[in-house]
Amino acid sequence: MILIQDRKFETLLGILCLVFVASGCSQSPAQDSPNSATESTEKTLLSNLSPCEALTQKQESKIEASGPGSPEEVVDVKACRWGLTSGNINISFYPEKTINDLDFSEGQVSGFKVGNKQGKLVKGNTEDLCTVAIPVNNNSESISVDAQGKGNTTSCDLAKKIAPMVEQNISDS
């Protein structure tokens, strides 16, 4: 075991470790402002969460999910899929895309309010799919709730039902 006796070396090592950790959280250089730690955390809000945590067990029961969500990752997008008695839902996190960066060119896009946020409702972007896109973290990140209804439940009814639950569970703080 090596003992470090030089106090200056310990201090320098501590500072280097802090700079290294801070540089991993942000592309910008570390700043000496009191908000720099908060800003780094805000920039990675969705990166630190799993889409399978977007719904609580109580909500999964309420929407009649057949079980807990199944995690998926497709091209750097974290997602989670649930099978329901009324259809299927997929919740995807986009930590580096705003809702304006998401490609909805194949669907009919309209505005849709989710809680106190202005999101998007996209009908028919793929087959019978309906999507609600939710802005997160001061609009720097986004979540999509994709739904495909079955029986008497339409895809958009299902997406509109699930999106407020997700928005409520994902905090901007």
What would your notes on this structure say?
- By secondary structure, the protein is an alpha+beta fold.
- It has 2 domains: 7-43, no CATH class; 46-169, 3-Layer(aba) Sandwich (Protein Transport Mog1p, Chain A).
- Helices cover 28% and strands 29% of the residues.
- The protein has helices at residues 7-25, 36-43, 57-62, 155-169, and strands spanning 70-74, 77-84, 87-94, 108-114, 117-123, 130-136, 141-149.
- Strands 1-2-3-7-6-5-4 form a 7-stranded antiparallel sheet, covered by helices on one side.
- The protein is globular.
- Mean pLDDT is 77; it is low at 1-42.
Please tell me the total number of domains: 2
* Major sheet summary line: 7 strands, antiparallel
Q: Which series of helices and strands comes N to C?
A: HHHEEEEEEEH
| CATH architecture type of the largest domain | 3-Layer(aba) Sandwich
Low-confidence sequence ranges? 1-42
Q: Give, in spatial order, the strands making up the sheet with the most strands.
A: 1-2-3-7-6-5-4
What portion of the residues fall into strands of 2 or more residues? 25-35%
Assign an overall shape.
Answer: globular
